[in-house]
From TrEMBL:
<dbReference type="InterPro" id="IPR037522">
    <property type="entry name" value="HD_GYP_dom"/>
</dbReference>
<keyword id="KW-0812">Transmembrane</keyword>
<dbReference type="InterPro" id="IPR029787">
    <property type="entry name" value="Nucleotide_cyclase"/>
</dbReference>
<dbReference type="InterPro" id="IPR003607">
    <property type="entry name" value="HD/PDEase_dom"/>
</dbReference>
<feature type="transmembrane region" description="Helical">
    <location>
        <begin position="105"/>
        <end position="126"/>
    </location>
</feature>
<feature type="transmembrane region" description="Helical">
    <location>
        <begin position="30"/>
        <end position="49"/>
    </location>
</feature>
<feature type="transmembrane region" description="Helical">
    <location>
        <begin position="79"/>
        <end position="99"/>
    </location>
</feature>
<keyword id="KW-0472">Membrane</keyword>
<dbReference type="Pfam" id="PF13487">
    <property type="entry name" value="HD_5"/>
</dbReference>
<keyword id="KW-1133">Transmembrane helix</keyword>
<feature type="domain" description="GGDEF">
    <location>
        <begin position="170"/>
        <end position="304"/>
    </location>
</feature>
<dbReference type="Pfam" id="PF00990">
    <property type="entry name" value="GGDEF"/>
</dbReference>
<protein>
    <submittedName>
        <fullName>Diguanylate cyclase (GGDEF)-like protein</fullName>
    </submittedName>
</protein>
<dbReference type="InterPro" id="IPR043128">
    <property type="entry name" value="Rev_trsase/Diguanyl_cyclase"/>
</dbReference>
<dbReference type="InterPro" id="IPR000160">
    <property type="entry name" value="GGDEF_dom"/>
</dbReference>
<feature type="domain" description="HD-GYP">
    <location>
        <begin position="316"/>
        <end position="504"/>
    </location>
</feature>
Length: 504
């Protein structure tokens, strides 16, 4: 009984798929109905002898053409309709022939049989062509290895969803998923293991959200989940659900090797947090980067830095919001990396300030300085900022000038001398070998010493054209190694402690 039920379910699903493929639009339904109506009108005309008997052959030919057209336009859906029509006609003609033995009726029966054969051939050919076209369409939008949507279709889906949301006033969530330590698994266990991790990750994501959300392979070891009509709370709970389900899996690389793999996720939402498609992707990417910096296996929501400032900024500084927006938009236009880096440095600096129990005003200045410490880089050509390989002496001297450029740009801000000092001196070294003024030890302001540690840590974790990224542990060791020379040793210890608390 259960087997019969399963068969009926499969038949129902097949019929549903046929309807979706060939009768999916209002126009096609109208066209199908028109063909069916034409066939039966011709049948009624033939039965009622409205036209002379010698016209029956022409009417029969018109019916055959209609049946073949149905198969050509609607494949198996049209074939089923045509077969049913012709079988009804054959049955009626057979009954009439048994009574009259008319040769004309025998010819009519033969024509109907040949019509069924013709429609079968047409339906098979159209079905094969349609299946081939469907396969090509699927390959065009599907990632070959993981069998989820590819990056090109990701952008197409996001464009469509944003256009829909602009009309419906809804929202879209985006989760960028990165496989932690993927390169290590590839290097240690081989590419077969890496491919297996990608496939099993895709299978899990797809099985969790089949027909509800869109799962895409976004990059080498990154996936994207598009969540139509999801609010901020739903996006976050979905990300934690992915994390929980994934943590229960052990990926099998080879028969003798299994590995515990973790995920880092960055989240954002349109239109409340991100105002455009590019912002949505960029913000989720920033959040993902921050999640990895916090020790991986983390979920992080994009935080609008301006919104945070607006909530925390004192009434004396509210007029700075517009200035900061303008300056940050300049950074973003010049170099997306610099903006994201500045936001993270600001966050780290505030963490250190809180650990040092600094006052509200000092922490606010630290936050502003972290955001704006690299604003002077807009004066430096992008070709130098992103140069692969060693800088020339002239190029390096130009790079060394960016703290001065930053301070000069901020100079018009009234009452912001402390902020300008932090920005100008964030590349000074504790041993006096830094730039631009060669200050040493406590002659360097506390804020500049904090920025120096936060800035260097984030730079070490960043993948840049001229240097490979470190892990958090490697960056901690590098900070400790250079404590007392490049960095204030007390701030290094405080920063490492607070980061390890965050990561734990």
């Amino acid at each position: 009984m259960s087997g019969l039920k399963q068969k009926l379910i499969q038949i129902r699903l097949s019929i549903k798929e046929l309807n979706s493929n060939y009768l999916g639009t209002t126009y096609k339904k109208f066209e199908f109905s028109l063909c069916v109506t034409l066939y039966w009108v011709l049948a009624i005309i033939q039965r009622q002898y409205i036209f002379p008997e010698n016209m029956n052959g022409i009417i029969a030919q018109m019916q055959s053409f209609t049946a073949i057209y149905l198969c050509f336009r609607f494949s198996y859906s049209g074939f089923f309709a045509a077969v049913i029509f012709n079988l009804i006609d054959i049955t009626m003609l057979v009954v009439l022939y048994s009574n009259t033995r008319s040769s004309n009726l025998l010819i009519g029966i033969t024509v109907k049989v040949f019509t069924i054969i013709s429609t079968s051939i047409v339906a098979i050919l159209v079905g094969k062509e349609s299946a081939h076209k469907k396969t090509l369409q699927r390959l065009a939008i599907t990632d070959e290895l993981t069998n989820v949507y590819n990056q090109r279709h990701f952008h197409s889906l996001l464009d469509k969803e944003i256009a829909r949301v602009q009309k419906s006033k809804g929202s879209i969530g985006l989760i960028l998923v990165d496989i932690d330590n993927f390169k290590t698994f590839n290097d240690v266990y081989g590419h077969d293991c890496g491919d297996n991790i990608l496939k099993e990750t895709a299978v899990l994501l797809d099985s969790l959200f089949k027909n509800k959300f869109f799962v895409c392979r976004y990059g080498g070891d990154e996936f994207a989940v598009i969540l139509p009509d999801a609010n901020i709370k739903e996006i976050e709970s979905t990300a934690h659900y992915i994390k929980e389900m994934y943590s229960q899996r052990t990926i099998h690389c080879k028969s003798e090797i299994s590995a515990k793999v973790t995920l880092s996720m960055g989240l954002s939402e349109y239109p409340n947090m991100s105002g455009s498609k590019n912002d949505l992707i960029s913000h989720a990417d920033m959040a993902l980067y921050h999640a990895k910096n916090l020790g991986k296996d983390k979920v992080h929501f994009y935080q609008d830095i301006i919104l945070q400032l607006r909530k925390s900024i004192s009434s004396d500084h509210q007029q700075l919001i517009g200035v900061f927006k303008t300056l940050l938009s300049i950074i973003s236009a010049k170099d997306k990396y610099t903006l994201a880096h500045s936001e993270r440095v600001s966050s780290y600096a505030v963490m250190i300030g809180n650990k040092l129990c600094l006052g509200f005003k000092d922490i606010s200045i630290l936050q502003y300085a972290g955001l704006l410490h690299d604003i002077g880089k807009i004066e430096i050509p992008r070709s130098i900022l992103n140069k692969v390989g060693r800088l020339t002496d002239e190029e390096f001297e130009l790079i060394r000038k960016h703290p001065v450029y930053s301070a000069n740009m901020l100079e018009p801000l009234e009452g912001m001398d402390q902020l300008i000092e932090y920005v100008r001196h964030h590349h000074e070294r504790f041993d006096g070998k830094g730039y631009p003024d060669g200050l040493a030890g406590k002659d360097i302001s506390l804020g500049a010493r904090i920025l120096c540690v936060a800035d260097s840590f984030d730079a070490m974790l960043s993948e840049r054209p001229y240097s490979r990224s470190m892990t958090a542990e490697q960056a901690f060791r590098e900070l400790e190694k250079n404590a007392g020379t490049q960095f204030d040793p007390i701030i290094v210890r405080i920063f490492i402690d607070v980061m390890k608390e965050k990561i734990a």
